[in-house]
Amino acid sequence: MKREHYRGTLTQTPVYLGKLLRMFFYQSDWKVLPMAAIIAGLVTFVTGKNMFFTQEGTLTGCFALVCVCIWNGFFNSIQVVCRERAIVKREHRAGMKIRAYIGAHMIYQCILCLLQTAITLGVCHVAEVRLPASGLITPWGIVDLFISLFLITYASDIMSLAVSCIVNNTTTAMTVMPFLLIIQLVFSGGFFELGGAAKKLTVLTVSRWGLQSLGTIGNYNSLPMVTLWNTIFKFKDMEIEGQKPVYMVIRYIEQNGLVDAVIQESGAYNQNPMFEYTVGNLLTCWLMLVLFIIVFGVLSCIALRFVDRDSR
């Protein structure tokens, strides 16, 4: 067809989307899907038993799921633009609309992220992870969980897409990616103890809002905490003046069936405002993740508009 038929953004977008879909099938881009299954399998194998069952297991498991989503998102798009930068430059000079090109990528990456999210939850189901039964926004916990995992993955994906639009080659992109990943993990705000300016920086990370959304859906604050009980149990044989006071307390608690009450009360003293089980809290997390998607999508368009000035 003649080039003039594809002058508009709306007419160019399906053309580039079709190109990306062909690359998915014929250039092995589909490999990101089994990779997502393998990563999710490894994570659920290690952390799945206590996820959404205890506070410790929930925090660790949610943090691991966030890591899975961020890794999937980063790996999806970190090289997609910079690996064909010369082609983009040539086609832009010939009339390609940057909005159409980025729009096609965002639609394509959205499809990938939806599939990866479904695969991740499917692996969790097969691994018999105890998923929340009821949701905050929808009647089903698994639907709320799906939305959160998708938004985390997609926000990470579009962040990576922006990086791919900014850098000049795949080597630079793969060099930058580990630093971005470390920043996301360290500044998640829930797993590492942060204070002062470092704590304030967490609001600028996808991981913070992702972890907060998953912990909220899992109703973290209502779960028991077993760390205190396990720590006390380690001292059961400690003697003081020939007596074992810790053992006596433990024996009393066990004989009177108070173990569950103790660990539940421990959880009550370990509640985190970050995981407040409210609709407003979860919606805030989702809106922040959507905001990241919009900001990085716009940044991708702005960065790629300067491709004609690239003399490399």
Could you name the key traits of this structure?
single chain; 312 residues; mainly alpha; 2 domains; 0% strand; elongated
Give an overview in words:
- By secondary structure, the chain is mainly α.
- The chain folds into 2 domains: 3-221 and 273-309, no CATH class; 226-269, no CATH class.
- 67% of the residues lie in helices and 0% in strands.
- The chain has 13 helices and no strands.
N-to-C series of helices and strands: HHHHHHHHHHHHH
Q: Distance between termini?
A: 31 Å
* Poorly predicted spans: none
The SS-based structural class is: mainly alpha
- How much beta, percentage-wise? under 5%
In total, the number of domains comes to 2
What value does the average pLDDT take? 87
DSSP summary, beta strand count: 0
Sheet having the most strands: none
What integer value in Å does the Rg equal? Answer: 24 Å
Number of helices: 13
Question: Helix coverage percent of residues?
Answer: 55-70%
Architecture blueprint of SSEs:
Layout: H1 9-26, H2 32-47, H3 55-77, H4 85-93, H5 98-126, H6 141-166, H7 170-186, H8 197-201, H9 206-217, H10 227-234, H11 245-255, H12 259-268, H13 279-304
Helix pairs in contact: 1-5, 2-3, 2-5, 3-5, 3-6, 3-7, 3-9, 5-6, 5-13, 6-9, 6-13, 9-13
